[in-house]
Design a protein that fits this description.
The complex is a heterodimer. By secondary structure, chain A is mainly beta. Chain A contains no helices and 14 strands. In chain A, strands 2, 5, 6, 10, 13 and 14 form a 6-stranded mixed β-sheet that branches. A 4-stranded antiparallel β-sheet of chain A has the order 3-9-8-7, with no helix packed on it. In chain A, strands 1-4 form a two-stranded antiparallel sheet. Classes of the chains: A mainly beta, B mainly beta.
């Protein structure tokens, strides 16, 4: 079974600064997807960024980028120019690339990192 | 295109009662996933359904919990004889049928969740 570990329960950063959230995972599979989700106080789960394991290039979405180290099974999220609206819980998630029943398997989530933005 | 709908948003039940949580997937989506989020925890996968089929229920508790996704109507997560430990946020996600478009990675779109409180 796959596991996802987020070792930072809480992180704090000054507005406009850069912060990195850590995530490691354990799997015996070679093909899979990795995700970062944001959960603001509204509790709505919002996809921030995704990474396909077969791609060596790190994914980037505007101010959000990842550092994907497949051999180390590490998948960190970097948020540049932090904004007050970035304050939320951030969850790292893993999904197998296998498909059953015509659809993708369920996601495995870490416990989350609470990101605080200091004005 | 409306997003994933869940109702009710909040549900209060007394111990021993039944809880029914509903999820309407996005239009065109034929796969539904249910997740549970306990306080201060990440989301835990419970069950993955297709229309009229349970594909993967490896995360479902063996007793009192059941799920269905009928040919017509929403997916239902049913909890019988609720206990205080069932108090949590329950999220539904949906995804489209399998595609060879690996770039999409069959993203799961989440609903706003139902917060169940057992008194």
């Amino acid at each position: 079974a796959q596991t996802v570990t987020q070792s930072q329960p809480e992180m704090s950063v000054q507005e406009a600064e850069t912060v990195t959230l850590s995530c490691t995972y354990d799997t015996s599979e070679s093909d899979y997807y990795l995700f970062w989700y944001k959960q603001p106080p509204s509790r709505q789960m919002i996809l921030v960024i995704r990474q396909e394991a077969y791609k060596q290039q790190n994914a980037t979405e505007n101010r959000f980028s990842v550092n994907f180290q497949k051999a180390a099974k590490s998948f960190s999220l970097k948020i540049s120019d932090s904004q007050l609206g970035d304050a939320a819980m951030y969850f790292c998630a893993y999904r197998s690339a296998s498909y059953s029943g015509g659809g993708a398997d369920g996601l495995t989530f870490g416990k989350g990192t609470h990101l605080i933005i200091q004005p | 295109n409306a997003g994933v709908m869940q109702n009710p948003r909040h549900l209060v039940r007394r111990r021993g009662q039944e809880a029914r949580l509903r999820c309407s997937p996005m239009k065109g989506h034929s796969h539904v996933y249910w997740y549970r989020q306990l306080p201060e925890e990440g989301l835990k996968f419970m069950v993955y359904l297709q229309k009229e089929n349970i594909i993967d229920e490896s995360g479902m508790p063996k007793e009192r919990f059941s799920a269905e996704f009928p040919k017509e109507g929403p997916s239902i997560l049913r909890i019988q004889q609720v206990v205080r430990g069932d108090s949590a946020a329950y999220f539904c996600a949906s995804s489209p049928p399998w595609t060879q478009d690996w770039e999409i990675g069959n993203e799961q779109f989440f609903g706003p969740g139902t917060r169940l409180t057992v008194l």
